[in-house]
Amino acid sequence: MLYFQQNARTYGEAIALLSGSKAYSYSTLIGQAENIAGILLENQADLHQSPVAYMVEPGFAYVSAQWGIWLAGGIAVPVALAHPLDSIKYILQDTGAKTFICSASFTSLLSDFCREAGVRLIVWEDKPESRQVSLPEVPIDRGAMILYTSGTTSLPKGVLSTHHGIESQIKSLVEAWKYTTNDHTLCVLPLHHIHGIINVISATLYVGGKVEFLPQFSPEEIFTRFKQGALNVFMAVPTIYFKLIAYLESLTESERKELKTCMQAFRLMISGSAALPVSVMEKWEILSGQRLLERYGMTEIGMAISNPYEGERRAGHVGMPLPNVQVRLVDEENGVVEGQPGEIQIKGPTVFKEYWGKEKATQEAFTEDGWFKTGDVAELADGYYRILGRNSTDIIKSGGYKLSALEIEEVLRTHPSVEDCSVVGLPDEEWGEIVAAVVVLKSDISSDALNTFMRSKMPAYRVPRKYLFLTELPRNAMGKVTKNDLKVLFT
User: Do residues 482 and 152 make contact, with C-beta atoms less than 8 angstroms apart?
Assistant: First the structure.
């Protein structure tokens, strides 16, 4: 019996989900999941790792669809609600999924394509009651979920994780972040990424806690939920904290004090999925009384490194290896380094199994001795890892120096006229690459004045040589700036 099935029976009538003004118990959740499994199986005994795509609203429908796919022996393939049809087609064609569960609101988008492609479309609101069927025994080493990478440098790759890998990720987080049955968390994250699926939903339900859903992002609604006093855990990405800070700063002093009192009672607040600017961490601590716990992870590895639940949460750092996760830094020749920056490599049971249908890409992603090559560069000091950036986008090689775009961004953000920024490397015949900055301003300032400021803060070889001003930075669904989109603006 899979872990979530066993746990759901253990917690029985306790509330698992609060969704659409309704409360759903663990018994109701697993019952609906078994119904979905029966619908998927029809006359089969086992889906035998057949991928099943699903595009349903966050909440009861989402979790029971996911669990139902797993109970039937299938591989769950969550699809982003905002995906255009071409992106959905790519996922269905790449996985070979022949079954698609969707909310009724997406039928007009999907029905013609699914009919032409021979894909069985199950509309959540119109699904039949299944007859009682015998569910298959699903080994834990089977494939469980395919999540797609962002595809910033190539077509998105499907990351296949097993049931064992997912449960290993959950157990590691439960141990490190001290989840308990009393946890009540609010899900505001998209559910085609590991942050919302594993950290928010799966780990909370693993221990018998409650997950509450917010259908659409709204700072006002988030703070309304905070004031109700039931929530005690909150996880978000830096851009969400940035927007919450802006909302808090628009309130009166008495309103801010009331909300700070509510937030101080939280057990834990976490930031992840993109680098947390130190300025955002410091502002949030002043306004909320909470020092955010920053961590590091990615689709292929789950969470790997984290600031401590108890102990110093060091600004600008992602912390230490999580339980059962091995971490090392290596140079360009794959030699282990100490006392200098290197690429992060990860090993352990939390690491994914393979890129779906891409044997060569899978082999290239691992060393011969089984370490996953993240492509992220970090340094280690006093036991804490600090991310310097990605090899491909955040490490700028200029005049023989390796420069961290993230470090330069932190300095730029300290200027009072700068609201946000992103630093990229541009090809240059003489220097290899030159530093360029894209800046969102709070108030007018010239590039010359910004340049003077930057030269007073860091060596000249790190200072941007080009500036571009935008009203906002392009970002993906998890709030990461899409730097390749910025580079073309300088050409």
Answer: yes
Structure tokens at 394: 């955040």
Q: All domains of the chain, ordered by start, with CATH?
A: 3-138 (3.40.50.980), 395-490 (3.30.300.30)
Vertex 165: Cα angle to 160 and 167 (nearest 5): 130
The pLDDT, as a whole number, for residue 150 is 66
CA 360 vs CA 94, 148, 157, 357: distances in Å? 15, 17, 12, 9
State pLDDT tens for residues 79-113: 999 888 988 999 999 999 999 999 999 999 999 99
pLDDT tens digits, 117-150: 999 999 999 988 877 789 999 999 999 999 998 6
Contacts of 410-416 spanning 24+ positions with Cβ under 8 A: 410/277, 410/278, 410/279, 410/316, 411/454, 411/457, 411/458, 412/437, 412/439, 412/450, 412/454, 412/464, 413/277, 413/279, 414/279, 414/457, 415/445, 415/450, 415/453, 416/442, 416/443
Q: How many CA atoms within 13 Å lie on the side-chain side of 134?
A: 4
pTM: 0.87
Closest CA to 20 of 122, 110, 124, 127: 124
Q: Can you say whether residue 89 is alpha, beta or left, with left for phi > 0 and alpha for psi between -120 and 50 degrees?
A: alpha
DSSP helix/strand/coil, 134:
coil
Separation of CA 480 from chain center: 10
Q: Which positions ≥6 away from 142 have C-beta within 8 Å?
A: 49, 73, 162, 163
In 291-431, the DSSP E strands lie at 293-298, 302-306, 320-321, 326-330, 342-347, 354-355, 372-381, 384-390, 395-398, 401-404, 418-428
Helix (H, G, I), strand (E, B), or coil: what is residue 422?
strand
CA–centroid distance for 120 within its chain: 29
Q: Which two tokens stand for residue 322?
A: 């999580």
Only one residue has tokens 């600008």, namely: 316
How do residues 145-193 score in pLDDT, each as one tens digit?
999 986 544 578 999 999 999 999 999 999 999 999 999 999 999 899 9
